[in-house]
Amino acid sequence: MATLYVTEIDHLAYDASAAVVLSGQMPPVVEQAIAITGASAQSNAFNTNARFIMVHNDVACCLAFGADPTAQLGFHRLAANERLFYGVKPGQKVAVIASA
Question: Cis omega before residue 69 (within 30°)?
Fold first, then answer.
């Protein structure tokens, strides 16, 4: 089954000298897995502490973000096996649909 993996993150990490590292602080706030099919599917609403998400998809797909998003073919397309980070607002969602 094709899946979009969503990792919700609340803070960036710091190194030993207290400098910000451009990586999410683990453990994550929440993790979700959304089936990628030929119909748009939404995540659960992002946690109230989520500020960033990391997404990883195992097939080509298209994404949409918002309060009630609907993913559409040809918009915000990701190739298979991408891993990307996005800034998000708590309560919003991501939607995904399979793409050719």
Answer: no
Q: What is the pTM of this model?
A: 0.93
Instruction: Kindly report the number of other CB atoms within 10 A of residue 26's CB atom.
Output: 9
- 9 is written with which tokens? 């993150």
Q: Are strands 30-35 and 83-87 parallel, antiparallel or unpaired?
A: unpaired
CA distances from 35 to 16, 42, 51, 85, 89 (A): 38, 9, 23, 19, 22
β-strand partners of 22? none
Q: What is the pLDDT of residues 69-85, one digit of tens each?
A: 999 999 999 999 999 99
